[in-house]
Amino acid sequence: MHERCVIITGANSGIGKAAAIQFASKGYTVIMACRNLEISKTAQTEIIKTANNRNVHLMEVDMSSFHSIRSFCTHFINKFEKADILIHNAAYFNHGEKYQLSPDQIELTFATNVFGPFLMTALLLDPLKKSDDARILFAGSNIIKHFFNEKTEIHFDNLQGEYKDSRSHWVYKMYCQSKMA
Ligand SMILES: NC(=O)c1ccc[n+]([C@@H]2O[C@H](COP(=O)([O-])OP(=O)(O)OC[C@H]3O[C@@H](n4cnc5c(N)ncnc54)[C@H](OP(=O)(O)O)[C@@H]3O)[C@@H](O)[C@H]2O)c1
Q1: Which of 27, 39, 90, 97 is buried deepest, with most CB atoms within 10 A?
Q2: Across the 181 residues of the chain, what is the mean pLDDT of every consecutive 10-residue run?
Q3: Are 87 and 22 contacting, i.e. CB atoms less than 8 angstroms apart?
């Protein structure tokens, strides 16, 4: 079990941190892929102590930025031989926020919850293929039940700011759509 490696995005809090503790307790090498190293350092120290496992590494990534994801993946591939599990846990959901674009000009919810994880998965396929039992997991949500209504659809025409000033924006709706995507 000591040879197994799991990458968890947003592992500094909530479900991601709880998962990191569980994997570290079972002897996995855990990569905490987090955007804020300063606040995440405290979580890393706590996970190492709680799980009694020193193989808990903190690496920087902003899941809303393609540049940051590319940099993370390059560093990961240079440092680690393989990845057994990739968990896309980090997510953007800020109640009341206005329509925002990522550094790559993609609506921020979709950039963080969909396109970022998609790019990261693609860039990590080689280390994942080196595992004898690789897994790629997405933190979903029970809100996708709304999508069993056939009238519900993803608004693909407004993912790059096309109607950001003319259509009403509701972050919750974007979040639901991103989880379905
Ligand atoms: N909690 C629930 O009831 C619930 C229900 C359904 C689904 N989920 C899903 O479960 C997952 C975890 O939820 P949670 O409640 O544990 O959330 P949380 O405690 O708010 O944690 C979210 C994590 O995502 C990170 N994050 C956000 N944007 C990021 C970015 N651009 N780059 C890198 N990291 C980023 C946050 O980092 P910072 O600390 O730097 O902000 C934080 O570590 C999410 O995918 C969420 O949609 C949760």
Answers
A1: 90
A2: 87 98 98 97 98 98 98 98 97 94 98 98 98 96 81 91 94 92 90
A3: no
| Alpha-carbon distance values, 109 to 12, 96, 162 (Å) | 19, 13, 15
Pocket test for ligand 1, best of 21, 35, 37, 172 (most atoms within 8 A of CB): 35
Q: Which of 32, 141, 142, 178 to mutate to test the pocket of ligand 1 (most atoms within 8 A of CB)?
A: 141
DSSP H helices in 56-180 = 66-79, 108-110, 116-123, 125-129, 171-180
Domains of the chain with CATH codes: 5-180 (3.40.50.720)
pLDDT at res. 1: 46
Q: Please tell me the predicted confidence (pLDDT) of residue 51.
A: 98
CA neighbor of 55 nearest in space, from 47, 66, 63: 47
Other beta carbons within 10 Å of 147: 16
